[in-house]
Amino acid sequence: MKSHKAKYLLFIWMIFFLTNQKICAQSPDSSTAEILKNIHAVENNLAGINGTAKDSAWNILSRMNHYKVKGVSFAVIHNYKIEWAKGYGWADENAQIPVSTETRFQAASISKSLNAVGLLKLTQENKLDLQADINQYLTSWKFPYDAISKGKKISTIELLSHTAGLNVHGFEGYQTGAPLPTIVQILNGQPPANSEAIRSMIEPGLRSEYSGGGITISQLIVMDITGMTYDQFMQDEVLTPLGMTGSSYEQPSKIDSTLLATGYTGNGDEVPDKYHVYPEQAAAGLWTNPTDLSKYIIETQLAWEGKSSKVLNQTTTHLRLTPYGDIHAALGVFIDSTDGRIYFQHGGANEGFRCQYMGSLSGGDGLVIMVNSDNGAIIPEIMNSVSRVYHWKGLTIYHLNQNKPGFSFLWTSASLLLLLSASFLIIRRNKRKRMK
Q1: Which of 108, 143, 236, 423 is surrounded by the fewest CB atoms within 10 Å?
Q2: How far is 402 from 53, CA to CA, in rounded Å?
Q3: Bridge partners (DSSP) listed for residue 275
Q4: How far apart are CA 4 and CA 183, in angstroms?
Q5: Is residue 82 a contact partner of residue 76, using CB atoms and an 8 Å limit?
């Protein structure tokens, strides 16, 4: 009997090794077997945003091939723990480097979520008043108010909630080896910056207008208050305390290149020089993996309940996850509620990368998905599959108990991801026009 049990456990751990996955279980025999069953189910139950519960399910590898996605990595959080994480396909197809759970992807706009944690750490330490005029803290550059702001001052809380009325939705980044602008050059739209100056578009506080430009101002606020480089501050005060040892805001990244995923276009072509560099670190510069992002999600969930305070305490966490001036936009996150469950989430889109995370505010569930492709259509399909297998309320794009398409939380997430993707098409189109 013991011999059969030993062979069974050996078989399970061989599967772990061969499929680039990590599994956490309370019991190595029963719980691990159940998790393996869930993994298999998730891999074979992908469903589209226009589908219904009766539609046939898809296999993850077939959908990767369908969308020409080279690599996928995701992690599932259950009961405040990373239940499993797994990589699929290629981190770099030409070099034949497979995606593992340690492979780092560009987190793109998910960078904004961790950035908000950093800013709120300064607030928690009484070094930053979220309601004060940002020029009170900016010393190396001042925001040039004009008639558009109608005499109103911009605050840090408005920067983080996208209610500051600022322009520049996103950034296209720079090819490896190209001259990089300073933060001040980016804010002023001066060469070699490839984006326009960050200025008022509407008066602050009027409504939510997504602005990576505003988040870049918050990056400079961190630097001016602390006197540190942004990436070092985030490493010391946020990433390391959260245990995110496979993450960094360093741009360009200096770690072993074999740990970095190569970006690919929607047609499956490699991005020139493998990926872009983003000096707009707070808005788009985080390199990370789903396992590390899961640590951030779990800590947020525990801090929300007052059970942990590795970086932010319960009061500050509640502030960060409370919508400000908009029903969805909180500080570095978006809040969605449906079917009686509330989630905090953010998506991201850099050149050659798409990603999405979500975490429940109760129950300790969550999910992180990252792909090295401009085509992120597989992301909501994976989310639907996880929802089917784990029976999570409010996650699917369609209602599983109906025969017609419906909408729930994930529609907001998917819409944001599509919006971010569309913004890059606009950026590219404008760049081509400037070059003519």
Answers
A1: 236
A2: 7
A3: none
A4: 62
A5: yes
Contacts of 125 (CB under 8 A, 6+ apart): none
Report field, pTM of the whole predicted structure over 0.85: yes
Q: Give dist(CA 416, CA 45) in Å, integer.
A: 23
pLDDT per residue as tens digits for the range 75-132: 999 999 999 999 999 999 999 999 999 999 999 999 999 999 999 999 999 999 999 9
Judge whether residue 396 has pLDDT over 70.
Answer: no
Count of helix runs (H) and strand runs (E) in the chain:
13, 12
Contact 358, 367 (CB under 8 A): yes
Looking up tokens 């259509």, which residue turns up? 377
- What is the H or E stretch that residue 338 is in? strand 334-338
141/256 Cα distance (integer angstroms): 34
pLDDT digits (tens, 9 = 90+) for 271-328: 999 999 999 999 999 999 999 999 999 999 999 999 999 999 999 999 999 999 989 9
Total residues found in the chain within this entry: 436
- Domain map (residue ranges) of the chain: 59-435
Please report the DSSP string for 184-235 in residue order.
HHHHHT-TT--S----BSS-TTSS----HHHHHHHHHHHHHHH-S-HHHHHI
Res 338: pLDDT: 79
Instruction: Tell me if 84 sits within 8 A of 263, measured CB to CB.
Output: no
pLDDT at residue 50 in the model: 58
- Beta-strand runs (E) in 351-409: 353-360, 366-371
C-alpha distances out from residue 113 to 124, 212, 282, 352, 359, Å: 16, 12, 9, 20, 12
CATH classification (class only), 59-435? alpha beta
